[in-house]
Design goal:
Structural class: alpha+beta
Largest sheet: 4 strands, antiparallel
CATH architecture: 2-Layer Sandwich
Number of strands: 4
Number of domains: 1
Strand content: 25-35%
Strand order of the largest sheet: 2-3-1-4
Shape: globular
Length: 69
C-alpha cells in the first residue's frame, strides 16, 4: 500500500470532505481530508490504482490538486 498526501484547493466544509472521501472510496482506496491544512491523505494499492486516477477522481468532484508529497 502506498500513502500520499495531496495538497487540494477549494475544500471548505463537510460536504467537501464527504465528496472527496466518497470518490476515493469508490476507487477502492482510503482517504482522509484535513480541511485546516488543505490536504487529502490517500492510501491505495499501486497494483490496481495509479496516483493519476486518484487525482482525477478528486478533480472530478470540483477541487484542484496542486501538489503532493
Amino acid at each position: 500500500m502506498k500513502n500520499v498526501t495531496l495538497k487540494v484547493e477549494g475544500m471548505s466544509c463537510g460536504h467537501c470532505v464527504n465528496s472527496i472521501e466518497g470518490a476515493i472510496k469508490e476507487l477502492g482506496a482510503k482517504g482522509h481530508v484535513d480541511l485546516a491544512n488543505e490536504t487529502v491523505t490517500v492510501e491505495f494499492d499501486e497494483t490496481s490504482i495509479t496516483l493519476e486516477v486518484v487525482k482525477e477522481a478528486i478533480e472530478e468532484q470540483g477541487y484542484t490538486v496542486v501538489g503532493f508529497s
